[in-house]
Task: structure prediction
Amino acid sequence: MARRFRISTLVSLLLIAVMVLSACSFGGGDTETKNSQVLNLAEIQEPPKLDSAKTTDVVSSMILGNVMEGLYRLDKDSKPVLGMAAKEPEVSADQLTWTFTVRDAKWSDGKPVTAHDFEFAWKRALNPETASEYAYILYPIKGAESYNTGKGSVDDVGVRALDDKTLQVVLERPIPYFKDLLCFSTYLPQRQDIVEKYGDKYSLEVDTMVYNGPFIFTDWKHNQSFQVKKNPSYWDKDTVKLEEVNWQIVKDNTTLVNLYNTGKLDFTKLTSEFIDAFKDDPNTFAIYDGSSWYLEMNQTKDFFKNRKIRQAIQLAIDRDTFVKGILKNGSIPAGGLVPPFIKASGVDENKKYRDLVKLEPEFDPAKAKQLWQEGLKELGLTKAPTIELLGDDTTGAKANLQFIKEQLRVNLGADVQITSVPFKERLERGKTQRFDLLVSGWSPDYNDAMTFLDLFTTDNAFNRGKYSNPEYDQLIRKSKENADFKERFQDLKKAEEVLIDDAAIVPLYFRTEMAVKKPFIKDWYWSAIGPEYTLKWTYVETGK
Amino acid sequence: MSEKNMKSLTPEMFEFVGMNESAGEEMARERVGFWKDAVRRFRTNWGAMIGLFIILIIGFFAFAGPLMNGYDYESQNIAIQNMEPFEDHYFGTDSFGRDLWQRTWNGAQVSLQIAFLAALFDLLIGVTVGSVSGYFGGRVDMVLQRIVEILYSIPNLIIIILMLLIFEPGIIPIALALSITGWVPMARVVRAQILKLKSQEYVLAARTLGAGHRHILTRHLIPNVMGPIIIAVTFAIPSAIFFEAFLSFIGLGIRPPLASLGSLVFDGSKFLQIYPYQLFYPATVLCLIMLAFNLLGDGLRDALDPRMRK
Result:
């Protein structure tokens, strides 16, 4: 016993020494210029599934977005621009029947891209035997859901190649964001002959798939690195400037930053502990990850059924300070639920939803305190109960919880207890309403406000605070079937205003990640939805 | 001696003092008992004195430190986040702008509370089980020792983690979780000592005079095992502090915003490259406490149990 602890003290003394020595700051030789069109990037994991019908993860989707091309692809403003579609489709008056013309393009093995490739790929993803987790993204297509769930037949699925170059798609109901959906990996074409030839081995190696995108996948050392090169048979090859892009697979954040500092990588994301180290670096930039974060209040409990109590909590959190002082990653303080990059789809393709629906975060401790007291009086309480604040147990999440607790303590005098649990446990407790306040986030499935606003209808499984308002439910239900996109937009706007006015949730922030890249990388476009980034237009500014 | 001198001795020169029977028993020097001897040995041990001194200083700051600069451990002030020591923020501020002086001493206080509570629980359970087991022997001993062995064979980290998943983390639950396995070494030490002492003559004498088990245990045996018990407690304290720090480090420790030294070190370690001072102060205090208790324990062992000295 005694001996062991003398060793432990020795170790702690050593640790002090190491600590003092390592306090000397680090810095590395920077290579700020480059003479070739080659990029060295990094991902934190191996792409697990490159089969576009089955893929669900960020890395695979990013690779597919660069080596494949669907009917549309996302441009620098995350707007869909023509890809494999030769021209804008003909759309029927009821917004349900879309007819696309496939452009004269070639696969990397020289065969032409046809409408059949699309029909095959989509029906394959919907086939229950494929067991694609993302099949639901195809559900707007008529008959897709019933086929995928085993109730309908493949012949009733509303997608058909009329000839080699014409693809007809019939939708279940009118949606203003169908073109955005077409940029998703699941909507990419696949070659029937190749898929059938390789069977289980399809897309497991670089030579068991064919490509029709700006790049071709040339090298893949599993769990180590992968590489793409410019595709010489791409239809728009003159636009593509990069010759080669290499990715290393690095799982450790410190290693990533060190590789960046020593010039071995041209880019790295920065986790919270490195943000301060790079705060004066002009090459940092923010990446929207698309998610919206908010507090849910458990409205199965009488205390949170009181609207004034909820409003008091909404007014008592200083979200500006939260974002600038705690998150420090460029996130945007939220006044509403729908994040700023979501489009005003169906109304004005060039505007964002948030441009037209302004909801600023409000912070007013005096009014909050007053509402809190009034709420307590209405409930017949002299003192609020202890409030349990539930959240994740990651370092960042814990810091957020501490900030929220302190805000409620100082501004309302509320006694808040923090419970941090692992991610799965948080979901489980949220689902079964075992919390008072819950920090939740939601990432969008498609580029439309509906993907967020749909969450808080009475019977939605992700409405964990059990907010319920018939007016809100009615507005959402109507918008789902509405072919009048202008009216639909107004209804969605109204729904969000009702949501915030009711203080159903407390919007916290729209999350971004910080990253740093070498200044010679230009026109590198990121998107919060669909493939994470596209390199089609990216180039290296050479020789200065 | 010359003859002349011999002649000069006369009977008048002698005085009769009589016979003093107790004089033979009296000691020439001051009587030095066990404890006095221990104190003397302890005082000559420089390491132990330094350890004691450090513990007193840290103990003083842990309780008086938070009164010194008028902040508290939980109030946030984002405007002064991550500041190196300035004005009366003697240790600077953390990423929430909370005063690190307050948090460090508060953390030291929490760590010490947990450690002393855990040591107290160890003491109560360990001494009871160990002495009963050693004294009564036989079937009682068999059963108790099997329990001890089972507890000893399961890695204590697992038990502690499981305990903390059931309890809500706080000072008392953590102390309890630590002592669930922590009492085992104490019980073993006490049992071994009692086994040795129970066959001594003075126990036999007491039993002959009609003393009950309880009297023999509490009056004759346990006082004679005090030395090893004190040593075991002194080593249990840094062990508990270390374990608590470890639990905080893996996220099972005290609930924020309350901090312990372990959780402060953990928070600080994330900013090691940018704000090293956030790690430096709590880590220094933590290491000093550990070092001091180990020095003190070594010194006490040398003083109370000289035979174990190497």
About this structure: Chain B has one domain: 54-66+91-308. Residues 54-66+91-308 of chain B form a domain with the MetI-like fold fold (CATH 1.10.3720.10).
